[in-house]
Amino acid sequence: MPSIDQFPLIPRDALFGNPSRAMGKISPDGQWLSWLAPHEDVLNIWLAPASDPTAAKVMTQSTERPIQQYMWSPDSGSLLYIQDKGGDENFLLYGVNIATGEETSLTPFENTRVDIVGGSESIRDTILIGLNNRDPQYHDVHRLNLNTGKLDLVLENNGYAGFMADDTLTLRMALRQNDAGGTDYFRVIDNVVEEEPFTATEMEDSLTTNPAGYTHDGQTLYWLDSRGRNTAALYAEDAASGERRLIAQDDKADIGGTLRNSKTGEIEAYSVNYLKTEWTAINPELGEAFAFLQSQFEGEVGVSSRSDDDRTWIVWNDPLTASTSTYIYDRDAGTLTPFYVSRPELEGMPLQPMHTVEITARDGLTLPSYLTLPAGTDSAQSGRPASPVPMMLLVHGGPWARDGYGFNSIHQMLANRGYAVLSTNFRGSTGFGKNFINAGNKQWGLAMHDDLIDAVNWAIDQGIAVADQVAIMGGSYGGYSTLAGLTFTPETFACGVDIVGPSNLETLLETIPPYWAPMVKTFHERMGNPETEEGLALLKAASPLYKADQITKPLLIAQGANDPRVKQAESDQIVSAMKSANIPVTYVLYPDEGHGFARPVNSISFFAIAENFLAECLGGRAEPVGDALAASTGEIVEGAQHVQGLG
Predict the structure, then answer these.
(1) Which positions are annotated as active-site residues?
(2) How many angstroms separate the most distant Cα atoms in the chain?
(3) Are 293 and 304 in contact (CB under 8 A)?
(4) How high is the pLDDT of residue 517?
(5) What is the pLDDT of residues 159-201, one digit of tens each?
(6) DSSP conformational letter for 164
(7) SS3 265
(8) How does pLDDT run across 531-546, given as a tens digit for each residue?
(9) Three-point CA angle 325, 330, 335, nearest 5°
């Protein structure tokens, strides 16, 4: 069995630096290709004629924060993107005219967050947006002309969490949280919201039931709906009569994504993601296209962009053990033309496969999970190493989110350093039906944490992990899980890495962003209501801050100073508590980041610190810190001496 040291270290830059290209799209009219790529080391939007992809030019001039989300205007006349400042999540909308190259701020406001309410096939120069510049809690709906920048108020919002429009950009529905923690759905007539809801959900269905849009004629309303069942099924509802028709369902997972006909808005395909994503075509011609794509590639395949005539697709292939590649699929010619490879520098690197596993929790609940093993430890590719190795439990954020199958930079780096990496969808994770989500209600630090401990014990019992060499790491809720792991179960983990994790659930709920206020009932029902004696006691009992003196193992904490969700105080206060108890801690603060790290230099510096921290704790290998920290904005607030290469 070869030693891990026989395999080259994958450079951090190759995993966490800028991709060569990303988010390739085709314009609605099929005339242009666009993508994100570095310009002066910052991700910007690039453009080229579809007839000559080599004639590329950069269209934006972002100099600090990378552009991470963009889209085409419906009329193909401009590129639109959203951008915040320093991670504050006050995203504003910008447009770049394709013909002139002129860049315009379409929402020139301060302390404002834009929401896209709706676009149109028939009104192609205008979209509906929500703006909370009048009241930070609520988004007023406006019509925005993308060519002139003219904003017209459609509806002043004083109590609704969101809206839905049809293809005529007419508001048809308003959403508001009800006292039960579910959602009330109201019809909107002539921009006036009716007083009584036409339908509603209870709290148990609030995360698994949502309207999924209208057909372009406005006659059919689609739903992803778990009412009266467990997993969310796809329904078509007659908008006038309310009569519903079941389109698709799955016993193990919710119906997830859909592909729509660009001319009619009718759903032509849908996806289900249990352990892996599987697409089913309703339209036979689409089924043939999917079958062709699957025959051409190994691994995961997906469609990221389509022209309005649906004859040209941008498709991606994730083989997991190589960088994701993107292609231009000409459906008429039946050809796949290479577009780009996202990270060509990974070619030839010892990337490892991801194994899907199902773990049984102590109460019998099945936990869909993903495992990556170090190179050379599993020559049979069985998903089990020849002998146990140190392990990282990597916990996802949310918690109302999920881990999935596919290339994962963190999995690959940690496996390359000599660790098994296990990601477990604990109860409360989304995508597996409402029973799975609701099993996590008011279980922070309780059954949700038990699932993670059960996953660790499974890995030990299976001969995957060394019992005293398991670390825990994660961001947001995953950061909370790290703190909970080192306080509630201090003997389970050898060390922990907390990224923007809350330490005090009471103060977390006190400081949520104002635009989350219309949804706060969900937090109270699923975490604990701080306005009740019982709920406050539950939140305090689940808060690692109050048990900071129980921490006995090394801890690394990373925080963005501008984080609007998990404020810097969440990290400051547990660091302070540990210092007061004379418990060593390493704390790195990024003054220009928010809820996670958007700037690659900051990601690279953090993982430089993290892998050297883990090398001391678990004995794996590490690329030296070098000048990674100096190249970033990161500040070591506490404990540089606890990480090799820093002290």
Answers:
(1) 476, 563, 595
(2) 71
(3) no
(4) 84
(5) 999 999 999 999 999 999 998 899 999 999 999 999 999 999 9
(6) E
(7) coil
(8) 999 999 999 999 999 9
(9) 70
The 3-class SS string of 269-287 reads EEEEECCCEEEEECCHHHH
In this structure, what DSSP letter does residue 415 have? H
Q: Exposure pattern of 381-412 as b/e (b: 16+ CB <10 Å)?
A: eebbbeebbbbbbbbbbbbbbbbbbbbbbbbb
Backbone angles phi, psi at 117, to 5 degrees: -90, -40
Amino acid (1-letter code) at residue 515: Y
Q: How far apart are CA 328 and CA 325, in angstroms?
A: 11
What type of residue is 394?
A: L
- ∠ CA(419), CA(425), CA(430), 5° rounding? 145
Angle ∠(466,368,181) on CA atoms, nearest 5: 120
Pairing verdict, β 78-83 and 69-72: antiparallel
- Tokens standing for 167? 């293809």
The token pair at 538 is 């539950």
The amino acid at residue 278 is E
Radius of gyration over alpha carbons of the chain, in Å?
A: 25
- The count of other CB atoms within 10 Å of the CB of residue 630 is 10
Q: Which helix (H) or strand (E) holds 569?
A: helix 568-580
Element (H, E) at 318: strand 312-318
Rounded to whole angstroms, the Cα distance separating 171 from 141 reads: 9
Q: Which of 85, 203, 110, 225 is nearest to 529 (CA)?
A: 203
Taking each helix axis from N to C terminus, what angle separates 409-416 and 600-618, rounded to the nearest 10 degrees?
Answer: 40
Q: In terms of Cα–Cα distance, which of 152, 92, 81, 98 is closest to 123?
A: 152
Question: What is d(CA 12, CA 610) in angstroms, rounded to the nearest whole number?
Answer: 11
Tokens 């003219």, residue located: 150
